[in-house]
Design a protein that fits this description.
It is built from 5 helices and 5 strands. With 125 residues, it is an alpha/beta fold. The protein has one domain: Response regulator (Rossmann fold, 3-Layer(aba) Sandwich), CATH 3.40.50. It has a 5-stranded parallel beta sheet, with helices on both faces. It is globular and about 30 Å long.
């Protein structure tokens, strides 16, 4: 069965690129453009992994991460920050909020699928 990934990104081009790359690598992908849309999707099912942009309109990605980690039904889902924000300390903030990893954009399309797959294996980063 294909790993289920929810990608949350408000940039349509980034969302399409990451989705297309992962689908090409055999992942089943759902897409959301903001935290509210993501929360609606999560009411209907639980993915194996969430890739989350930090800078979202409305509720930002770190706030969403904290909310998801506080919800028993969703707290086990690995969340990986996928962001263009590469300032010193940003990765630490993402990890402190509950993310298990941090991937910067632009992504390397040749390595992205294998990088994402590593976060599906507990204890591997």
């Amino acid at each position: 069965m294909a790993p289920q990934v929810l990608i949350i990104d408000d940039n349509a081009l980034n969302l399409k690129l990451t989705s297309d790359v992962l689908r090409g690598e055999g992942f089943a992908v759902q897409e959301a453009q903001d935290a509210e849309e993501a929360r609606d999707i999560l009411k209907r099912g639980v993915p194996d992994l969430i890739l989350l942009d930090i800078a979202l309109p409305g509720m930002d990605g770190l706030t969403l991460t904290r909310l998801l980690k506080a919800e028993a039904r969703l707290s086990h889902i690995p969340i990986v920050a996928l962001t263009a924000s590469a300032m010193k300390g940003d990765e630490d903030k993402a990890l402190a909020a509950g993310c298990v990893g941090y991937i910067t954009k632009p992504i390397d399309t040749r390595r992205f699928g294998s990088l994402v797959r590593k976060f599906l294996t507990p204890g591997v980063k």
